[in-house]
Fold these 2 entries.
Entry 1:
Amino acid sequence: MMVFRGSHELYMGGTMPAFTGPPPFGWLQRLDPETLEVLTQSPELPCGEHVWCGAIAAHQNGDVIKVNGNFVHRLDADCQINSERQLPIDQAHNGLLVLSDGTIVTKDLRLANQGPSTITRLDPDTLDLVGEPLALPEGSMGRIASDVTPDGEFIYIPGIEHVWRIRVEPERLAIDKSWTPNYRQSDSDQGLSWDGCISDGALWLMDCGDIGSLRAIYGVHPNGRLIEPTDRLSWRRPAPWSGAQRLVRADLQDGTVQSIAPFGTPGGGIIAPPVHVPEHQLCIAWDSINGGLAGISTQGDSLEVAWTTDARPSMQPVVFPDTGELVINDFDGDDDKLIVVDMTTGEIVSRVSTGSRLANGMFLTPGVDRDIYYRSTFACARVQWQ
């Protein structure tokens, strides 16, 4: 992923994707925002040999914080290590948040039948543990989201069957047992949820996320360290379930759950979260395996399909609510393109090739002048539109 530390300080972080062969490692680069030239880069960062994309965040203390496998690093503006810590759970971690008090939280990733996930809180200056790591009642695949409300600060974590709400207290994290929506029945033929989008009094999720490639990566330990090359790492392989892709809404007050299958095609699958746009009372969902992009009207008491578009997205999108534009990728099997979609109609108003022959589930990053930063396994690009 890419983040801005200052208005012209662009950083990109990731993990060298060594599924086989030499040990993998994490890395951080500072890029020129216009040319994408690498201005400086970190040394190789240990990751416990786990192969996963990790996450970065620009902290108010001036550091870039990087979670990578089962390690966390503080790096300065020149991508040099200030400090590092091995996390207490020997598992790849998925997600990184900076809470309102500046502390850092991250969570290890586990699929069904792999035991409970653990959320860990760290001091941003020393990387010391803040309180004890909190074991969740279930495993958790998706990343984490947080919200500050008049009732306190909360972290939302999708589990195997439920969504868990964690209350942030000064010295500890505590499970809020009064709010445990069940988004996926244990006997349902649906996959697990990725991360959620907090918007308009609800947490918005898409299920059907633990596709075959993810099961291959997390079926070994260290995660992603395969004994020999395999063709099982494509997200385009058939889904290991018959259920259609669903959008799920969990009310933040009473925990009631609504869902809709906008395409109805069996064997749906995704590797990213939806995005809700309150200015347009619309939630955007898609099916990466079968194809299809949909705008779901969230007006009134029910969810209804407002439009569908022929596209095959896989990435985390960006919305521009003032202009009603959505930017997301569209992979045709040979070339990954970026498209600009009119969210009011679903019309694709612009399309450009990124030059990447592969697509994955990475984040798109907004620039400062109607531009978007894109990266995939083999490509990095800046795209601007008029």
Note: Helices lie at 212-217.
Entry 2:
Amino acid sequence: MKNNRSLFSRRSVITAALLATALPGVAVAQASYPDKPIRVIVSFPPGGAADQIARAVAEPLRQALGQPVVVENRAGANGNIAGDFVVKQPADGYTLLMSSGGTVSINPHLYSKMPFDPTKDLVPVAAAARVLVFLEVNPQKVPVPDAKAFIAYLKANPGKLSFGTPGNGSSPHLAAEMMKAQTNAFATHIPYRGAAPAMQDLLGGQVDFMFDPGIGLQHVKSGKLKLLAVGSPKRSPQYPHVPTLDEVGLKNFDADTYFGFYAAGGTPQPVVSRLNTEINKILRSPAFVERMSAIGAIPAPMSPQDFGMRAQIDSVRYGALIRARNIKGD
């Protein structure tokens, strides 16, 4: 018994010594963060809302942190490919995910098997923007004067119209499913690998309408697309003359999505806090507000905890829609 107590005592001393030497090292590493380049992995192709938001943050974040911030696009599976890559990186804050909230709040309901657990393997770092979706049509294909006329046309011509989306289960797809469910209308869904290629086909007439996460608003100004309504509870501050879908007869229509930054689970809290503080400063800057205005998005500075809570709320409402509409992942 004495020998056992002696062995236990020696082990305790060794363990304490290791902790005493290791913990200061961890503290120093956190205090010196960042001391090398940071990668931002975007879950959608170049040109989409996630890509534009990531690049709007990257340069001012580089200036604030004094290290390069490199943006990479890893599209596919509604964000799962990028998310899976990020969770497999060291949890040190040097690899961040930029994605729509769908990676956390939609995909677990959409896919029977996930490559990772978003609630455990990812930690919210900072929300970036509330991205609205705008109901737009190609006026050469669908010559309607307003949203009411469009809905009437859609209901009167089941299966005649098609719509493009960034992919199955994306917020633009779910917005279209909300509209179809409330109007009992049918239109053909054409999923793409991102909003940008879907927008190109809307402009080219390969699809008839789209719930646009803002990247097509420049084409509304040029007259190539017609903006009919916004899929939000309130009108867009940038387009106050455009009605919400609730105003044209639908009920409780809300397809807004929060895009933001995540890190691998286990990333030290001081690192998350530093990133959150610096990113929130960028979100409040006039330059960022102006860039978001171009895509109809609204900067959304908040704490990591509030960002995580937002994802939980969206998970409940989108999960119910996915089950009701029997929507499956690719």
Note: DSSP finds 13 helices and eleven strands in the chain.
